[in-house]
Amino acid sequence: MHIGLIGGIGPAATEFYYRALVKLYKQAERQLELTIVNADARELVGHLEAGESAAQAAIFARYIDRLKAGGCEAAAITSMGGHFCLKDLAPISSLPLISAVTALEEYFSAAGIGRVGVLGTRAVMESGLYGLSSAEVVTVPVDELQTAHAHYTAIAVSGHATDEQRAYFETAASRLINSHGAEAVVLGGTDLFLAFDKPGYPYRIVDSAQVHAEAIARVGLG
C-alpha cells in the first residue's frame, strides 16, 4: 500500500516517522511506498491555539487530495497536536486516515497499562489525549498547561530542545510518575523525543510517534 504522510509539523517528527517506517519495512523485507507533503508548523500552531479545528481540517484535506493524486491509498498526520482536528477532517478526507489516537488505544490495551501521564500540546493534555478510553490520563496542573504547551511548540517549530526545555519535561515526567501514579509517561507530542534523548530514564516512556509509525507500517504492509 502506498502511504501518504502530512509532514513538516515539525520537521524533526517527519524525519522520525520516515526513519521508523524505513526500518520497519526493511525488517519485513518489503519495499516502502511513501509520499510526504510538507505542511506549515506555524500555521498549525496558530489554528491549534485559536481552537480553529475546521480551518485546519480544510487545510489538511487539501494536502490529502495531493497525496491521493500522487497515488497514496491512506494518510497519516505526523503530529499529535495536528490530531486536534481529526473529527472535522475525517468526513472530508479523500483517503482513509491512520490515527495515532487509535494506535495508542490499542497499545495501552495490549500492554495492560491503566494509568498514563501525558505531555504535549495544551489540546493534547486538556483533552486527556483526545478522550483516550483505554487508560486513565493524568497531566500537569492546570496553571502549568500553558508553560508545557509553550515549551513543546517551541521544540516542534525549532526542531531541537534546549537544556531548559529538557529539564522542564524531565521534571514534569517525574512528577507524573511519583506524585500522580502514572505507570508510563506518554510523549503526546511527536517532537518530544528531542527532549527525552538520554538513555535509562527511571520510568517507562511511550513515544506516541513510534507507536503511530508502527501502526502505519501494519496498515501499509497489510
Strand order in the largest sheet: 5-4-6-7
Using the 3D structure, state the CATH architecture of the largest domain: 3-Layer(aba) Sandwich
Q: Give the mean pLDDT.
A: 96
Q: List the total number of helices.
A: 10
Low-confidence stretches: none
The helix-and-strand class reads: alpha/beta
What would the principal axes of the Cα set say about the shape? globular
Name the helicity range. 40-55%
Helix-strand pattern, N to C? EHEHHEHHEHHEHHEEH
Name a few traits of the molecule.
222 residues, alpha/beta, Rossmann fold, 2 domains, 3-stranded parallel β-sheet, 10 helices
Provide structural commentary:
This protein has 222 residues and is an alpha/beta fold. The protein has two domains: 2-99 and 210-221, 3-Layer(aba) Sandwich (Rossmann fold); 101-207, Rossmann fold, CATH 3.40.50. Helices cover 51% and strands 14% of the residues. It contains ten helices and seven strands. β1 (2-7), α1 and β2 (33-38) form a beta-alpha-beta unit. It starts with a strand and ends with a helix. The model has no long low-confidence stretch (mean pLDDT 96).
Detail the topology: elements first, then pairings.
Elements: E1 2-7, H1 11-27, E2 33-38, H2 41-50, H3 53-69, E3 74-77, H4 86-89, H5 100-111, E4 115-119, H6 122-126, H7 128-131, E5 136-138, H8 145-158, H9 163-178, E6 184-187, E7 205-207, H10 208-221
Parallel strand pairs: 1-2, 1-3, 4-5, 4-6, 6-7
Task: Give a brief description.
By secondary structure, the chain is of the alpha/beta class. The protein has two domains: 2-99 and 210-221, Rossmann fold, CATH 3.40.50; 101-207, Rossmann fold, CATH 3.40.50.1860. Helices cover 51% and strands 14% of the residues.
